[in-house]
Amino acid sequence: MEWFDDNSSSSSNEVAQTIIDEIHKQKQLLAQMYSQPASERVVHHRQYVHCDREAAHLRLMQDYFNDNPTNGPTFFRRHFRMQKEMFLRIVEAVQGEDTYFQMSHDARGRDSLTPLQKCTTAIHQLATGVSADTFNEYLKVADTKGCLCLKRFCEAVIRAFGAEYLRRPMQADIGRLSDTRGATRISRDAQES
């Protein structure tokens, strides 16, 4: 639009008047649009993209969490940087802290992502440092949902475990850590001899 052109020789009053005129035009267009009955208005819907979240959950269960998973405990620990029992303890605690991690339904009445899918997305991001969009193919979690999972997960973990783990260490904690490290050093020295 010419009223934004710095080379224009029009005065500041003309520019201001042009802006005001443009605002009035937009206001009239909005008033005209909202004066129409709702049935005649053009409604823009979001495009629905079908992703098989249910199959993704079943695949996740088969790969890691069933009684006889495809990927054993060694792979689980390497993939998530923790043991499966610890992982499930965290998932359970997060579900108790935030309703976002409880099973729910989307606007179409379909099951939303399972708590396990949401927590897996967040924990894998934290464990490996990958971006949220890497889970779209495997877990059917889009990048925006992955970022939201990570944010809500961190907040829920802090609420669930903050009092116990986000505090200054006590003398007993330091002693226990020293004993553990000392025992590890002694066992390594014995193995090397």
Strand-helix topology:
Layout: H1 12-35, H2 53-65, H3 73-80, H4 84-97, H5 115-128, H6 143-165, H7 171-192
Helix pairs in contact: 4-5, 4-6, 5-6
Structure description:
The chain has 7 helices and no strands. The chain has 2 domains: 2-40; 53-174, no CATH class. The radius of gyration is 28 Å and the shape is elongated. The chain has 193 residues and is mostly helical. Helix content is 61%, strand content 0%. The termini are far apart.
Summarize the structure in short.
This protein has helices spanning 12-35, 53-65, 73-80, 84-97, 115-128, 143-165, 171-192. By secondary structure, it is mainly alpha-helical.
Amount of beta strand: under 5%
Helix content: 55-70%
Number of domains: 2
* Average residue-wise pLDDT: 79
Order of helices and strands: HHHHHHH
Q: From the alpha-carbon coordinates, what is the Rg to the nearest angstrom?
A: 28 Å
Q: Low-confidence spans: pLDDT under 50, at least 5 residues?
A: 186-191
Shape: elongated
Backbone structural class: mainly alpha
How far apart the termini lie comes to 82 Å
The major sheet is characterized as: none
Number of strands: 0
Number of helices: 7
